[in-house]
Amino acid sequence: MFIDKAKVYVRSGKGGDGAVSFRREKYVPLGGPDGGDGGRGANVIFRVDTGITTLLDFKYKRKFVAEDGVNGGTSKCYGRDGEDLYIKVPMGTIIREAESNKIVADLSHKDDVFVLLRGGKGGKGNCKFCTPTRQAPHFAEPGMPGEEMNIILELKLLADVGLLGFPNVGKSTFLSMTTKAKPKIANYHFTTLKPNLGVVGTDGTEPFVMADIPGIIEGASEGVGLGLEFLRHIERTRILIHVVDISGIEGRDPFEDFVKINEELRKYSVKLWDRPQIVVANKMDMLYDEQVFLDFEKKVKEVGYKKVFKMSAATRDGVDDVIKEAARMLKEIPITELEISEEERYIPEEKKFTYDIRIEENDEFNTYVVFGSFVDRLLEAVDLYDADSLRYFHKVLNNKGVLAKLREMGIEDGDMVRLNDYEFEYLL
């Protein structure tokens, strides 16, 4: 089964919590704090695996959670770091952030490795909070939370040449004649339901990869047929071989087909529309009026193309000429990376622990509510029922500028300060 798009949830590991511990041994009555630090949470890392050709694995598993760091232990023992989670994807995979649909990474090389989410940092044990005036801290730092993201994995095949054309014009037959690929071939539309890849190698030419892209018809750029699902697979190609059914046995005009397909390319991507094309008139063995080809050739040249190749994929007449022309053009066209504009690229927000303050007024006193991620983390780290821990709590509030901001907002003696479920009376 060919799967080229998948939506998955990924989360890196949380850092381990620091330990609150005191050394207690015989003959060491005042051993002091010895709580160790927590371990780092595991990263989520994507790695290219050339042995994988589709995103089928992500059809059955859509949630990937990395290992948390281990909590710190006694005797200043550090917790173990979480083991990084490696996720294998096929070469040519693009990672998008699901909500914005912006590109996070393009994994288009053999050895590409990308760290998508970093694990949370481990919390400090209570021994790290020991000072000359605070010799027995009864609190430790919790581990930092991991990161999480919903992403879309999108596979864009890596091919040098893309086959283009309406259904049933002979693209699959051409691919089967020039490579060892075995696509399904039948005389009806949409026989090909998935992209097929093959390596073309003939005497005197460098081997290259060719892709048969199915389902591109009029309206493909707007989702008609299968086109929108597979147009992405020719974005990386350097050359397009545009195959036209010159016989007209289905009652369509060859030049109108040629124009319609190019119009769909233009609507989907101007860069794709500008890509060099080799125009091929296929099924010449079924053409009984040579004038039809001459009229088609004349019109194609009028719109800027220098040559139209005659071919019959079924009998192999003219096939080698097309392959040689493709190989010649590939030598002149450099390999370029997929261009990602600034508007398309995802830039992660810098994570900061912040707070805000709102005032709840009443007749007797005002209540200043301090809330935000900074408050949540601070309250996790301290024991407000311990004197040393409470002093540390006030020190952090002062260093962070919370107390200064409260005074700036006009807090008065007797007003209340609320942090989550805790309330304190403010005294000047």
UniProtKB/TrEMBL annotation:
Binding site for GTP: 165-172, 190-194, 212-215, 282-285, 312-314
Named cofactor requirement(s): Mg(2+)
Binding site for Mg(2+): 172, 192
Keywords associated with the record: Cytoplasm, GTP-binding, Hydrolase, Magnesium, Metal-binding, Nucleotide-binding
OBG-type G domain boundaries: 159-331
Subcellular compartments: Cytoplasm
Domain OCT: 345-428
Domain of life: Bacteria
Enzyme Commission code: 3.6.5.-
Domain Obg: 1-158
Top enzyme category: hydrolase
PANTHER family the UniProt entry points to: DEVELOPMENTALLY REGULATED GTP-BINDING PROTEIN-RELATED (PTHR11702), MITOCHONDRIAL RIBOSOME-ASSOCIATED GTPASE 2 (PTHR11702:SF31)
Purpose of the protein: An essential GTPase which binds GTP, GDP and possibly (p)ppGpp with moderate affinity, with high nucleotide exchange rates and a fairly low GTP hydrolysis rate. Plays a role in control of the cell cycle, stress response, ribosome biogenesis and in those bacteria that undergo differentiation, in morphogenesis control.
Subunit structure and binding partners: Monomer.
Cited NCBIfam families: Obg_CgtA, Obg_CgtA_exten, PRK12296.1, PRK12297.1, PRK12299.1, small_GTP
Family: Belongs to the TRAFAC class OBG-HflX-like GTPase superfamily. OBG GTPase family.
Name used for this protein in its record: GTPase Obg
